[in-house]
């Protein structure tokens, strides 16, 4: 299966070389989870603050459950600080 992975802000440093606009297409196994993809790219889980699957927020407990399908988009943002 193939999905689109988007890593935003400082997390874009974890994308493979040659990725454009915070995005890369990757092959995943049928039973892949959001966390297995995040771990594969060595993104620290505590830095994966906002995780969206096809634009829908995944609660932390949902990130370990197989929910990815061919053509999905997994987008990840780090915690945001500001004032």
Which tags fit this structure?
Ubiquitin-like (UB roll), 5 strands, five-stranded mixed beta sheet, mainly beta, 83 residues
Structural description of this entry:
By secondary structure, the chain is mainly beta. It has one domain: Beta-grasp domain (Ubiquitin-like (UB roll), Roll), CATH 3.10.20.30. It is 8% helix and 27% strand. It is built from 1 helix and 5 strands; from the N terminus they run ββαβββ. Strands 2-1-5-3-4 form a 5-stranded mixed sheet, with no helix packed on it. β3 and β4 form a beta hairpin. The model has no long low-confidence stretch (mean pLDDT 94).
* Uncertain ranges: none
Rg on CA atoms, Å: 12 Å
Structural class by SSE content = mainly beta
CATH topology group: Ubiquitin-like (UB roll)
Largest sheet: 5 strands, mixed
Globally, the shape reads globular
Q: Kindly estimate the percentage of residues that lie in beta strands according to DSSP.
A: 25-35%
Q: Going by CATH, what is the homologous superfamily?
A: Beta-grasp domain
Share of helical residues: under 10%
Give the CATH architecture.
Roll
Write the layout of secondary structure elements.
Blueprint: E1 2-7, E2 23-27, H1 34-40, E3 50-53, E4 56-57, E5 73-77
Parallel strand pairs: 1-5
Antiparallel strand pairs: 1-2, 3-4, 3-5
Offer a concise description of the structure:
The chain has 83 residues and is mainly beta.
